[in-house]
């Protein structure tokens, strides 16, 4: 079977720190897919330089009302076609012209290879409906335990500021995040610590994911914990759903990245793909105090109960597998 001719482009999204990079990298072991890193992230300037895709906000909400402004660039992105005219207009030096030539050669190489893009991008979560509707993509949405998400944000020192990216987007607030407007405005006026900010961010992202689960039963929704419990089986199933051959090479690489010889959890500010996946499930239990876990649950419970049971909050045992 010629998989490069039959598979569709793939979007891997979800909240940040939910395993999108891990899943994306493990799926692009197969050459039928090539990896694209966060083209909807406004600080990834390559998206504008190569495809003319200029993103004004984090977590931009592209929809039918504003999509015309992004459609041509998004289509170039998914087809791997370099916007060389944009590159020439922006060139200011011989070095810039050389970059244009390299980008043109690279884009032609992608098309000759026949592969399809796997777009790994949590920043595209709020635009996932528009992307899948217009470009016939598989959509994989990652879900992660609230405490694990907050613990990861705390370890990296990442504070969420939804007042800076959500409130300026009237269409986003209207379509997806309206129930959170008062909480976002309150946070914009007061002093809130990283735990509170990360908890609100988790609730906002997973509220949207809950809406998507209802609207799009054909999408693939995956809990990070369920993949981590048995990654060899989980990825075999995922490869099958995408029409990819689950080769011995793929199985071996996935086992290498998830096996017990790897560290149980990341340390400091490192972001690594090689961890003991089963032990990493419960890493938040070592990073957060009981008081912090209780605070997190208080902030997120209304949304979290859609994805996690009381047992999944047990600080003595890893999260259990779920069919949710």
Defining key terms:
324 residues; Rossmann fold; 18 helices; 5 strands; 8% strand
Description:
- The protein is of the alpha/beta class and 324 residues long.
- It has a single domain (3-311), classed as 3-Layer(aba) Sandwich (Rossmann fold), CATH 3.40.50.300.
- Helix content is 53%, strand content 8%.
- It has 18 helices and five strands.
- A five-stranded parallel β-sheet has the order 2-3-1-4-5.
- The model is unreliable at 317-324 (pLDDT under 50).
Q: In short, what is this structure?
A:
The chain is built from 18 helices and five strands. The protein is an alpha/beta fold and 324 residues long.
Distance between the termini: 32 Å
Going by CATH, what is the homologous superfamily?
P-loop containing nucleotide triphosphate hydrolases
How many strands in all?
5
Total number of helical segments? 18
Task: Return the CATH topology.
Answer: Rossmann fold
How much helix is in the residues? Answer: 40-55%
State the low-pLDDT regions, or none.
317-324
Gyration radius, rounded: 20 Å
Series of secondary-structure elements, N-terminal to C-terminal: HEHEHHHHEHEHHHHHEHHHHHH
Category from helices, strands and their pairing: alpha/beta
Which helices and strands occur, and which strands form pairs?
Blueprint: H1 3-6, E1 10-14, H2 20-27, E2 33-37, H3 46-51, H4 68-79, H5 84-90, H6 94-113, E3 116-120, H7 128-135, E4 138-143, H8 146-156, H9 162-165, H10 170-177, H11 181-189, H12 194-215, E5 220-223, H13 224-229, H14 231-242, H15 248-258, H16 277-280, H17 284-287, H18 290-304
Parallel strand pairs: 1-3, 1-4, 2-3, 4-5
Helix pairs in contact: 5-6, 8-12, 12-18, 14-15
């Amino acid at each position: 079977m010629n998989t490069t001719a039959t598979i569709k482009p793939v979007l891997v999204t979800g909240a940040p720190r939910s395993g999108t990079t891990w899943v994306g990298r493990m799926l692009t072991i197969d050459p039928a897919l090539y990896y694209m890193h966060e083209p909807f992230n406004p600080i990834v300037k390559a998206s504008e330089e190569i495809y003319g895709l200029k993103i004004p906000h984090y977590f931009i909400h592209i929809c039918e009302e504003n999509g015309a402004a992004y459609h041509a660039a998004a289509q170039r992105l998914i087809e791997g076609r370099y916007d060389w005219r944009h590159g020439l207009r922006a060139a200011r030096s011989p070095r810039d012209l050389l970059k244009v030539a390299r980008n043109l050669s690279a884009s032609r190489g992608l098309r000759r290879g026949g592969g399809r893009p796997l777009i790994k991008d949590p920043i595209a979560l709020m635009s996932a409906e528009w992307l899948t509707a217009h470009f016939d993509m598989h959509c994989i949405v990652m879900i992660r335990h609230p405490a694990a998400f907050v613990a990861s944000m705390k370890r990296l020192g990442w504070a969420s500021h939804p007042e800076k990216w959500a409130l300026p987007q009237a269409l986003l607030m209207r379509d997806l995040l309206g129930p959170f407007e008062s909480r976002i405005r309150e946070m914009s006026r007061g002093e809130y610590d990283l735990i509170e900010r990360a908890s609100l961010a988790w609730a906002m992202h997973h509220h949207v994911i809950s809406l998507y689960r209802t609207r799009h039963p054909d999408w693939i929704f995956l809990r990070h914990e369920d993949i981590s419990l048995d990654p060899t089986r989980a990825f075999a199933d995922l490869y099958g759903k995408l029409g990819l051959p689950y080769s011995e090479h793929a199985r071996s690489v996935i086992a290498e990245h998830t096996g017990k010889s790897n560290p149980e959890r990341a340390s400091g500010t490192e972001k690594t793909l090689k961890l003991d996946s089963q032990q990493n499930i419960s890493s938040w239990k070592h990073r957060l105090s009981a008081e912090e876990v209780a605070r997190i649950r208080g902030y997120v419970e209304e949304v979290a109960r859609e994805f996690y049971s009381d047992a999944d909050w047990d600080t003595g045992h890893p999260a259990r597998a779920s069919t949710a």
